[in-house]
Amino acid sequence: MPRYRIASAGLLLAVGACTSVKSVQPAAFIPQHSPPVVWVTYTDNSFVPVAQPHMVGDTLRGTWLGLNEPLTIPLDEIQSVQARLPDHARTVILFTTLVVVTGGTAYLWVTAGHNGPYDPLLSCGTYLGGGKYTCWDQ
Fold it and tell me: Does the global pTM surpass 0.85?
């Protein structure tokens, strides 16, 4: 798999990890934020995704996502409206995880191939104990 595809997949996961779907007040939220999609639950518990939502008076208008059919929903028929919003807690968790994984990977990469603790001050001809010398036997 080419590297740009892996990077693209990681970027999509990161963007998804930094948001969550939460309930909103449609009359205030939609005009202010102009979300591309909201998810509407009717009072009878049926559910519809609405693309390009906008408020006209006390009515939510938009297009049924996937069917491209126009929708007009009075607010008194809506039980709840949900929209994708930034989630700062999830963003902190994502970046903390990335720092820990990157640091752990760097540590393993630096210390790979060494038996026991690595001591850069240990030079050739230093006695290691047990009758062993580094670089050559004496």
Answer: no
